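From the pipeline queue, job 12 of 40. The input is one protein chain; the requested action is below.

Action: predict structure.
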Amino acid sequence: MTKKRDKVQQVKKSTKDYKPRSEREIAMDFATKVHQKFDKMVKASILFGSQAKNTANASSDIDIIIIIDDASISWDLELVAWYREELGKLISAEDYSKDLHINTIKLTTWWQDLLHGDPVVLNVLRYGEALIDSGGFFNPIKSLLYQGKIKSTVEAVYAALQRAPAHLARSKSAEIGAIEGVYWCMVDSAQAALIMAGKLPPSPEHLPELLNTAFVEKGMLKVNAIRALKDIYALHKSISYGETNDVKGAEIDQWQETAEKFLLDMTQIINKLIEEQKNTKG
């Protein structure tokens, strides 16, 4: 009897001392604790980024999106402050082998962006993986996306295009941070043009290929724009992985000029496609 009791105690101890090792185990462990802590306040936890795409390397963080219920729960300043504090405690309390990068989004914002076909939400759907989906909506919507039943709208085109100049403006205020603005200026404007062309906007690494098919091969865009997009993507990744820590002012100036030209190219393509649609309807 004593031996049995000792074995039970050993099992309990080993379970308690267990630490998740793989990226998905870490993500699931953290998501479980989030849902236990916040209960019905959280509708879903989504694994996103390189871990979900299976493109992670040793320096990649674990990206998790937490969708909170603001439809049936009123989030006043006090509740928001409490949520942020408790979430911070959960993150700092865990000694995971990988850093966590947590984004929180409101449920109503998620649905509004989805209805407009926002490229960011569509990419989360396409590449994201539901860790815990207590709301029961993520996988059904993901299925509809793969069936081609969720499409972007003109509102998404203009929203993405309107964000691009703001990214460019922010890029002029810092050095390393400047490249981030240039990168997103080119990504957002490229996705806006692809949406206008009736394409489902891909994640940034697949943009050059789709731009080539949609516009370069049809004579609407020069191949130099594709090369520039590939180069800024590579530089952006190099900075995020800590491989590049310094960018010279002259290089930043050149990239900002490139981004301005790229934004102009995408705007002209969008205007041309809008005009073609008007003529077709007329």
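Job complete. The first helix runs from residue 2 to 17.
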